[in-house]
Amino acid sequence: MSHQTGIVATDELRNFFATCKEGGANEGRYRAVKVSIENETLVLSDSGLADGSFEEDWDTLILPMLEEKQPCYIFYRMDSRGSHGGFEWLFLAFSPDFAHIREKMLYAGTRATMKKEFGQAQIKEEVFGTVSEDMSLAGYHKHLQAQSAPAPLTEAEEELKYIKQQEGVNTHVHVDTRQQTVKGIQFPISQPAITKLQQLKEGQVNYVRLELDIVNETIELSGAEDTTVQSLPQRVPTDQPRYHFFVFKHTHEGDYQESVLFIYSMPGYKCSIKERMLYSSCKAPLLEQTEHDIGITAVKKIEIDDGAELTEEFLMDEIHPKKNAYREKFARPQGPAGKRGPRRMIRGANTPSS
What confidence category does residue 182 fall into, taking pLDDT thresholds of 50, 70 and 90? Predict the structure, then answer.
């Protein structure tokens, strides 16, 4: 933009920059310099003298220089010095949302020229803002925090980070590693939940639903009742994860069977990352507790994201997968007609040519 429009600083502005940066009696005198674009040139618009520290002077000098609908540049002197020996400066670029599009484009395209006119070696950092709060001292501190913050993580990285924090997993892999590194999180099972699980084992109920109390870090009873396969999907929440123990009574190949199923329902990404990771991490320890302490062994572990999946046909296929009894034999392709085809004439070395 600056090359196309020929925008450059006036001699007055260049001389003032030199005065602000020179040593001697004027060194450290000026704290803030406001620059505007007028008549396609960079001009000195305002300036402020240092009175206290750079933080004490910040809001007093900068905020009055800002106009609601007018972009501007502000050079603000810090108290620190750079490797060049002089003071370090901040370059503040203010472009309010309510400014005209042409003005915002003009100032955006001239930023590189503005820094070059001032001297890039003495600019420690650049700050951009669209509202006065961005240009305040508090806004500058937020800018510093954002600059020092780690890069944003993907959802998968967030989940992995949460697992490490909750479980204290040692992810170092060595040739002598023998055990599984992620073992899960074991929450204690509440007494009401234990009671209903014991009743399920004894045949008094055929369905028990459990939930995590994330605050108290316990596994609580969510529901327990006799349930048919047809009504089982209605027991699965559509917005919360749950654990389900269900005794599936059925007949297979003429034999009556009662199979204990463990169903882990997780309704996709409707739940928070913390819930998804905790339910996933607590699943294996829960099954271990119910098997060793209560005596319930699930013949099949099923994971679903929608209760509508739990049909009788689906459960039968999970427990008794269909086997393909007939296996087609490999059909060898037929060879050429006859045993080896017609006999070929091979010309020998002593055979006279025609």
Answer: very low
Q: Where are the alpha helices (DSSP H) in the chain?
A: 2-5, 11-21, 54-62, 101-118, 132-135, 137-148, 155-167, 191-202, 273-289, 312-319
| pLDDT confidence band for 159 (50 / 70 / 90) | low
Task: Tell me the C-alpha to C-alpha distance, in Å, between residue 222 and each of 160, 213, 287, 301.
Answer: 28, 10, 17, 19
Whole-angstrom Cα distance, residue 331 to residue 247?
Answer: 46
Cα 154 to Cα 261, 273, 276: the distances in Å are 34, 12, 15
Cα–Cα distance measured from residue 107 to residue 5, given in angstroms and rounded to the nearest whole number: 12
Instruction: Quickly state the pLDDT bin for 85 (edges 50, 70, 90).
Output: confident
The CA-based diameter of the chain, rounded to the nearest angstrom, is 119
Cα 82 to Cα 6: distance, rounded to the nearest angstrom: 31
Q: For the whole prediction, is pTM greater than 0.85?
A: no
CA distances from 293 to 79, 195, 278 (A): 67, 12, 22
